[in-house]
Amino acid sequence: MTPGPIDQEKQAVRERVWTLLDEAKAVPPDSYGKIPGFFGAEQTAERLAKLDIWKRARTIKSNPDYAQLPIRARALEDGKLLYMAVPKIAGLKPFFRIDPSELDVPAVQAAEKATASKSAKRVGIDEMTPIDMVICGSVAVNRSGARIGKGAGYSDIEVALLIAAGLVTEETTIVATVHQLQVIEEGIPETTHDFSVDVIVTPEEVVECGNRRRPGGIVWGEMPKEKIQAIPVLKDREVG
């Protein structure tokens, strides 16, 4: 599928931020094209853990990227139930369920993608409980809460599926944890299926965002057929 103008604009933002992070040596050398595993992620997790929204949360859903590993580990250390997305939303059970009361390895190891893939229980959406906080990986965010991922669309699909199931609600807080250089001042183009974040946390600051934006669920009219066929949980739920 040929990228449209919005896709091209988003990609230009990604490339600019990846280059900026690389030139500042804020990320490892292999971060281009990925959710950046930025230096300072541990401090970001500590800053988030001091917030009341974190202290109140009992159930956390997170992306599986390395950048958010310290937050996933902190969630388990703090006794929170953790759901982690299976990479590429593979299978009809597209989330790992990691219960801190059942760990037989240190929290930071249990929160790793490789460990979860081997030992964590995989669950379907109908087996999950309501989510208090969503942690989403991002390449860029702005202070109004608009975000851009790496371009695969998995975070948007995960959140849309959970909204459709009633597991992400108006009570759920969506948080982006990023390096300060990933917080940009300009506008970010958004489409119907994009969600915004409520809070941005960096090693240096916490930003409370306005203009909350969430889809009502999967926007089937914007979902490419090849994407539906490639993701079993979408194919299973396809309408129309």
TrEMBL record:
Coiled coil: none annotated. This is 5-formyltetrahydrofolate cyclo-ligase. Pfam families: 5-FTHF_cyc-lig. GO terms for molecular function: ligase activity. It comes from the Bacteria. One of its GO terms (cellular component) is cytoplasm. SUPFAM superfamilies: NagB/RpiA/CoA transferase-like. Keywords: Ligase. PANTHER family: 5-FORMYLTETRAHYDROFOLATE CYCLO-LIGASE-RELATED, METHENYLTETRAHYDROFOLATE SYNTHASE DOMAIN-CONTAINING PROTEIN.
